[in-house]
Amino acid sequence: MIVPEPTSVYELPRPRSRARAALVALRPRQWTKNLLLFAGIIFAAKLGDFGRWGEAIAAFAAYCAASSASYLVNDLRDAPHDRVHPVKRARPIARGELSPRFAAGLAALLLLTALLLVAPLGPASILFLCTFLALQAGYTLALKHVVLLDVMTIGGLFVVRAAAGAAAVEVRISPWLLLCTALLALFLALAKRRGELVLVGAEATPGRPVLEGYSLALVDQLVSVVAASTVISYCLYTFTARGSKAMMITIPFVLFGVFRYLLLMHRRDLGEEPEEILLHDLPILICIAGWTVCAAVILSVT
Q1: Could you point out which of 94, 106, 201, 272 has its C-alpha 20 to 30 Å from the C-alpha of 227?
Q2: How far apart are CA 3 and CA 107, in angstroms?
């Protein structure tokens, strides 16, 4: 694969210490995705079971370690392309702040840590973690370069997280909730692709090859279809959930969250980093908090 030559000279910030660079390379902000591992214990209304909370926390820590290991491997492979990207050029490996050998060693240590954390949780948890790692490897090595399969793989990774969280605490999770999780992840992944397209176009900078298979018109259509499907699947979940009539009260929170994200997505490149919106947009934070409190109260009393 031919790596495009940089078309501009960029001024980078001062180099970070190796410890700081290593922390940044782990992408701790992305760990918010792994909060999905608590879905099983929350939706099974086992909030007072401290033993299960310990298992859920162990699973969460394992997936944070596994995710960070995958990010390191991904950045090792993508370093040449990252150096000519208007945002990703600041990643520690692309900047040369972490050597490939150090990054590979840290990734191996994190993988071992993840396996040790899930081992006491049983064979099902080990299988889910191996599936997660296999999907991550497939995404890094090939699937991230295949149009549509790249975003569908991201959706699959979120489903594995949700199912793994339920398996860790030995509770059943609704198939409708898993479908909603997959669609929501697909929605965010497509929004991220849209953000990348807008950013690359605005900067007149070469992007990742997979972006050549997308267009703003196509992505906007796909986002609309998936956004509608996400809301419908959540509604179907509430019809079958514990205290289904009461759970329907939470539908407006989901509607507002999706609408708000669509609004922000169309403000230039705000969709490129979904976790930035989830961590910094006050209306979405209030919406998430309201949904969480409302759902927790309903599930605990029904």
Answers
A1: 201
A2: 25
Q: Residues 185, 162: contact at Cβ < 8 Å?
A: no
- Which of 155, 173, 191 is the endpoint of a domain? 173
* pLDDT of 271 higher than 60: no
Helix (H, G, I), strand (E, B) or coil at 144: helix
Q: Which residue range forms the structural domain that includes residue 266?
A: 175-302
Rounded-to-integer distance, Cα 164 and Cα 159, Å: 8
CA dihedral 64, 69, 70, 76 (to 10 degrees): 150
* pLDDT(74) > 50: yes
Is residue 298 assigned to a domain?
yes
Predicted TM-score (pTM) of this structure: 0.83
pLDDT tens per residue, range 278-289: 778 899 999 999
**Interval 175-187 mean pLDDT:** 91
Q: Which of 222, 63, 41 is nearest to 130 (CA)?
A: 63
Return the sign of the alpha-carbon dihedral for residues 193, 199, 200, 202: positive
Torsion of the alpha carbons at 91, 95, 97 and 99, rounded to the nearest 10: 100
295 closest CA partner among 12, 38, 6 = 38
Tell me what pLDDT residue 108 has.
97
